[in-house]
Amino acid sequence: MLLSASVDLYVPRIGQRLGFDETICTGVAWRDGQLDGGLTTANRRGEEKRRCIDALRQRFAGARIAAYGNSSSDLPHLVAVDRPVLVNGGRGAIRAAERLGVLVEDWRNN
User: What are 30-79's pLDDT values in tens digits?
Assistant: First the structure.
């Protein structure tokens, strides 16, 4: 499962190319073949991403969930998974992640 706050214009295709069975992302609205500026889903960011994780836990009871994020807005869903990683976060996000017991990594030099 690929969960992203990014939009469904490209996330499903990326998920498919990476071998994910499903994607959850922010849906954008179309009217008469044009983007209308609205969303068809909640923005899958912050607490909404946490709600998605909670729904996945119900759907796949007992499954272990790993997740990564790169900002403070990702911390609500990171604390809800079994293997959280904050990757390349800013100073504030790193401090908050460390307080919450979230693993912090820097992948920029790897």
Answer: 999 999 999 999 999 999 999 999 999 999 999 999 999 999 999 999 99
What mean pLDDT is reported for the chain? 96
Q: Can you give the three-state secondary structure of the chain, one letter per residue?
A: CEEEEEECCCHHHHHHHCCCCCEEEECEEEECCEEEEEECCCCCCCHHHHHHHHHHHHHCCCCCCEEEECCHHHHHHHCCCCEEEEECCCHHHHHHHHHHCCEEECCCCC
Distance between first and last Cα of the chain: 25
Sign of the CA dihedral with 41 first, then 43, 48, and 49 last = positive
**Residue at 25: amino acid letter:** C
Q: What is the value of pTM for the model shown?
A: 0.89
